[in-house]
């Protein structure tokens, strides 16, 4: 039996990491070759996506950052009851990086990125210290480390000194049943991202002002959490919206712009491509690897470069649409699940 520990999951708070967890579990349910049991925290009792599961009542109910730290500290101080719940597991996977609880069976950790080491100024000192104390030993102590891009693999070897032989690259996937072209394009550019510093909204606003001077009717539509009370004219911030609305926006947008300064993978450009939406994308971190030649790349630190890329995509969208659709076909959650299952098989 393969145990999957999700004790640090907080629904709605982990962005792409939660998407990865839920889609991986669904994929394992469809194509997995092993028996699985998911260990869930009290705050996420329905997160097993149909796989056999149990709720770890011993783990504290935790949503806020302070509560989560307290729950992790308590679990580390008294791991026995949690370990007992995984005693039949021959391999344990920790998709959210932290090995809670540690067990005697071989362990697999998923490492999503090392942004706190590559862009430390974007993290408070307390968060950097926490990751150094908790994340790094968890990653170094795993028998296998799954990374979501070759970029993350390289950074893990360079920054953490990991043995490359223990690392497996397993890209993220797409749900092609939901993501497909539909309808006519409208005169707006779309960016789905929480207003975290690395998502680079301020430079995007500067770039949009340049475009707006040339195309007064162009709009910029944003989704995601954070404070968007100060957006410029022509920008519409919709906040959190259902996934169905995100898909609809990608199906209707004239282009998706993705100016992020750092991604361990970066799903939205691929999701937009699957919807037939042309993409203008940052050339930072894993993004060039993920989009291949199917997106118009730009320097995310230069608003003029962002504006030029969006201008090019809007002026001649058809070639970018065709390249994007072809690129998106290379990714599926079933393939992610099969590749992950192969990592389990190495240790069984």
Write the layout of secondary structure elements.
Layout: E1 2-5, H1 16-31, E2 36-40, E3 53-55, H2 65-77, H3 80-85, E4 91-94, E5 107-111, H4 115-118, H5 125-140, E6 144-147, H6 150-160, E7 167-169, E8 188-192, H7 201-214, E9 219-223, E10 235-237, H8 243-252, E11 255-258, H9 267-274, E12 279-282, H10 287-291, E13 296-298, H11 303-315, H12 317-328, H13 333-347
Walk me through this protein's architecture:
This protein has helices spanning 16-31, 65-77, 80-85, 115-118, 125-140, 150-160, 201-214, 243-252, 267-274, 287-291, 303-315, 317-328, 333-347; strands at residues 2-5, 36-40, 53-55, 91-94, 107-111, 144-147, 167-169, 188-192, 219-223, 235-237, 255-258, 279-282, 296-298. By secondary structure, the chain is of the alpha/beta class. The protein has two domains: 2-173 and 332-347, Rossmann fold, CATH 3.40.50.2000; 188-328, Rossmann fold (3-Layer(aba) Sandwich), CATH 3.40.50. The strands form two sheets. A seven-stranded parallel sheet has the order 3-2-1-4-5-6-7, with helices on both faces. Helix 7 packs across helix 11 (303-315) and helix 9 (267-274) packs across helix 12.
